[in-house]
Amino acid sequence: MIARDVIKAFGQGEHSVRALDNVSCEIRQGEFFTLLGPSGCGKTTLLRLIAGFEMPSSGQILIDGTDVTGRPPNRREVNTVFQSYALFPHLTVAENVGFALKMQGKSKAETGARVSEMLALVKLEAMAGRRTSQLSGGQQQRVALARALAPRPKVLLLDEPLSALDLKLRKEMQVELKRLQTETGITFVFVTHDQEEALTMSDRIAVMSAGKIQQVGGPREIYTAPVNRFVADFIGETNFIPVRPVEGGARLPNGSVIAAQGSGTLLTIRPEQLRLVPADSPGSLKARVTNVVYFGTDTHVYLELEDGTGLTARVPSPADGAPMHQTGQRLGLGFAEGAARLIRE
């Protein structure tokens, strides 16, 4: 699936707003691809263009090498799972799953076999005769997935389908969605603003902001090698230190030089990559502890450098839960080898 130079503007003339600003990306066949970004970044608009619910102002949408830009939704081999699930309350689970097949004119035998296959895939065989109103939120979502997968689309679009679930069920469904995508081999395009969902399930992620794609890459690449401040800040927690680039690295506020990859005047380092050392350790940054917050397995230590820059270190909590650091304590800061990266603003 390819989006090529796509622009989508809403409104006319000087009042028009570009929801998508010359967006291009290629989604590989059979991958779990996530569009990630804050509200208003254009991710759902791009999903709707792929589905055919919206038409681009300019540019092309290609599926399996075929230009489908002007085709209506029913002439694209694409199905969508919506945030609200949109199930038919007057139909049983089996009837919901078989609805699209029935509309396609499939035989009763073929529809029945396919419905059974889909219910087995989502582990709802025992619920086939129930009304959807009798199901939990997680079960309803599985029905919506089975219904969307039943016609064997080339691309399955998922518009924040986990947002209505509680935290525990959402985590369980993250694993289930990845399992379904792997077992079916269908291309999944998933929209979310949740970084953890994106990192957990995706083969690749497109991070979006203000109608543009900022970076595309695998979860590890996006997390460890962000290209700019927006991506670094949006994907997980991170620290920023203004520095002066030098050959092969960066000069820190205390004058010492450390090795750093990338380019730019901003050093980014994840909280788990900061090392807390004695205040008099050679080459370390001098810092003062401003707060300590216990998070169970981890403890977050909030610090302030001599120039007022705020940083966060994440350290393993001791087995007895006793605090290792105190507010007001003076410490030195070091960096895990290879963890520091220079990025642009």
Automatic annotation (TrEMBL):
UniProt domain ABC transporter: residue ranges: 1-235
Catalytic activity of the protein: ATP + H2O + polyamine-[polyamine-binding protein]Side 1 = ADP + phosphate + polyamineSide 2 + [polyamine-binding protein]Side 1
Keywords: ATP-binding, Cell membrane, Membrane, Nucleotide-binding, Translocase, Transport
GO molecular function: ATP binding
EC annotation from Swiss-Prot or TrEMBL: 7.6.2.11
Gene3D superfamilies: 2.40.50.100, P-loop containing nucleotide triphosphate hydrolases (3.40.50.300)
Keyword field contains Nucleotide-binding: yes
Reported function: Part of the ABC transporter complex PotABCD involved in spermidine/putrescine import. Responsible for energy coupling to the transport system.
Family named by the database record: Belongs to the ABC transporter superfamily. Spermidine/putrescine importer (TC 3.A.1.11.1) family.
PANTHER family xrefs: SPERMIDINE/PUTRESCINE IMPORT ATP-BINDING PROTEIN POTA, SPERMIDINE_PUTRESCINE IMPORT ATP-BINDING PROTEIN POTA
Subunit structure: The complex is composed of two ATP-binding proteins (PotA), two transmembrane proteins (PotB and PotC) and a solute-binding protein (PotD).
Protein name: Spermidine/putrescine import ATP-binding protein PotA
